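Give me structure tokens for this 109-residue protein.
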Amino acid sequence: MFKRLDDLGASSLGEDADMFGDTLEEAIQCGPRTHDLPFKLQTIAELKTLLACTDAEIDHVTWALIRIDPTADVEEPPNWGRFPSLRAFWSAVLHAFEHDPEVQEQGDT
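Here you go.
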């Protein structure tokens, strides 16, 4: 159901997410930059579907999709950052994809 989000869990939001940035926010921002427009648009649609779920459903789905805990205080790398909830995390991912320049340009046409 969340094929694109699962793909992010295998790349920028995977267990080696620190390879995509020194902070969790940088790893999130890297996601849109490494994919084409159809992937970005499909990801936005999946994120909107996910965020329409209850917090319990988001929690359940998240652990199947990504290999990191965005709510945990991670000591390595230092100052990695964290989110107060999984809903806040996925909202930040949605924001990154929606504000990607290629997506913004698509919306202007």
